[in-house]
TrEMBL record:
It comes from Enhydrobacter aerosaccus. Keywords: Transferase. GO terms for molecular function: transferase activity. It comes from the Bacteria. This is S-adenosylmethionine-diacylgycerolhomoserine-N-methlytransferase. CDD domains: AdoMet_MTases. InterPro entries: Methyltransf_25, SAM-dependent_MTases_sf. Residues 48-148 form the Methyltransferase domain.
């Protein structure tokens, strides 16, 4: 719990000012977010959760794409959630998207929202900022309904890009406490197998990003 508090304080410090320009600046380099949302394809009437929802930008796009689905979001930063709630009010979606402050490694949807599980869970460019990211993946799989899918998009290994670009990008990301998870495929594959789920991964934009889908077996 102490680590979660430290992480919460760090996130609030980072985003206290950045949250006001976050969406305007991130659209240029958080590649693949809308592609992931388009491929969520949740069943009608189902529940979808975003872990690390930030300003709720992704939830708003998803809610408009899938109006017959219930959406939920959690984040550890009170600053980001304040911006998210204000934006949802402005967009008229405050009653369609439910938010809660929570530690992604230890959340319980029954306590937060009164629901048992989700048909889709997604994590967009926030896993690389979470110190205990493996635990986040494990927790997400715990609350995935049978037949459900966990979608993750984040920075990749940039293997198809020039070395100077990779070195420069990673040096710049470190300034913002961002660490690309190069072991994502291996870790998610192992966690998935233990949970009865199969993992597939893509590396779009010449490896700039990585996009993983872990589907839990069952119906």
């Amino acid at each position: 719990m102490a680590e979660a508090i430290v992480s919460s304080e760090l996130m609030d410090r980072i985003y206290r000012r950045q949250r006001h320009v976050y969406d305007a600046t991130r659209k240029y380099y958080l590649l693949g977010r809308d592609r992931m949302i388009a491929r969520l394809a949740p069943p009608a009437g189902s529940r979808v959760l975003e872990i690390g929802c930030g300003t709720a930008r992704n939830l708003i796009v998803a809610a408009r794409a899938y109006p017959d689905v219930q959406f939920f979001g959690i984040d550890i930063s009170a600053e980001m959630l304040a911006t998210a709630r204000r934006t949802l009010e402005q967009e008229g979606l405050a009653h369609d998207i439910r938010l809660a402050r929570a530690d992604a490694t230890a959340f319980d949807p029954a306590l937060l929202f009164g629901v048992p599980s989700f048909s889709r869970i997604f994590v967009s460019y926030s896993l690389s900022m979470m110190p205990c990211w493996q635990a986040v993946l494990g927790r997400a799989l715990t609350w995935l309904a049978p037949g459900g899918e966990l979608h993750v998009v984040d920075f990749g290994g940039q293997e198809g890009l020039p070395v100077w670009f990779r070195v420069g990008l990673r040096g710049w990301l470190r300034l913002f406490h961002v660490t690309p998870r190069d072991e994502l495929e291996q870790e998610l594959t192992l966690l998935g197998l233990r949970s009865g789920a199969l993992t597939a991964i893509e590396r779009p934009f010449r490896g700039y990003a990585q996009y993983a889908v872990c589907r839990r077996l069952g119906v």
